[in-house]
Amino acid sequence: MCAGPGGKARLLAGLASTGEARLLAADLRLHRARLLRSSLAGTPGAVAVVAADGTAPAWRPGAFDRVLADVPCSGLGALRRRAEARWRRSPADVTALGPVQRALLASALDSARPGGVVAYVTCSPHLAETRDVVTSVLAGRDDVEVLDAPAVLPEVPGLRSPDPHPEFAQFWPHRHGTDAIFLALLRRE
């Protein structure tokens, strides 16, 4: 979900090509879906791209084993690469994204089959776009187990978010040489 312009989708397509996996990449905006198609052209394996609203998906509930919800965010985690973004963002921008992020995560969870896993990812360290979104959506559900995301990446030190949610992973530019990326892994029960 929210797959354009295709960097993560290209990586997933490469991983999927080694087995029997199929990849469906979706983005709301048609021009981004076109970028995805171009990016994935020639990729071996079963790969499809659709322009679809992740908050009202075109696929049936429980259709997927794995869902990556790479939600739109303020981009504050990419300041090391886009320092000028600090002047284009306001607290209102973060607040306005919350409902969309929550709707996308809820839809991603509904799109996963029982036993399926959803990765909620955003390039922001802001609690309102990370932990608060996940805990808010989970407060209204009793069919989701939070997995230990840092344990899935044992080769990357220092990912654990502080209490009360050490099961969430937070990458940091000064520690990991990446954007400030947040990751929560959720299993649908």
Question: How are the secondary structure elements laid out?
Answer:
Layout: H1 7-16, E1 22-27, H2 30-40, E2 46-51, E3 64-70, H3 91-111, E4 112-122, H4 131-139, E5 144-147, H5 149-152, E6 169-170, H6 173-176, E7 182-188
Parallel strand pairs: 1-2, 3-4
Antiparallel strand pairs: 4-7, 5-7, 6-7
Helix pairs in contact: 3-4
Would you kindly provide a written description of the structure presented here, covering whatever features stand out?
With 189 residues, the protein is α/β, with parallel strands linked by helices. Helices cover 31% and strands 23% of the residues. It has 2 domains: 1-52, no CATH class; 62-188, Rossmann fold, CATH 3.40.50. Strands 3, 4, 5, 6 and 7 form a 5-stranded mixed beta sheet that branches. The protein is globular and about 40 Å long. The protein starts with 6 loop residues before the first helix and ends with a strand.
- Name of the level-1 CATH class of the largest domain: Alpha Beta
Helix content: 25-40%
Strand fraction: 15-25%
Secondary structure: number of strands: 7
Radius of gyration, rounded?
Answer: 16 Å
The unreliable regions are: none
CATH architecture of the largest domain: 3-Layer(aba) Sandwich
For the record, the count of structural domains works out to: 2
Shape descriptor? globular
Secondary-structure-based class equals alpha/beta
> What distance lies between the first and last C-alpha atoms, to the nearest angstrom?
20 Å
The number of distinct helices, counting runs of at least 4 residues, comes to 6
CATH-defined topology of the largest domain: Rossmann fold
Tell me, rounded to a whole number, the average pLDDT.
Answer: 89
Largest sheet: 5 strands, mixed
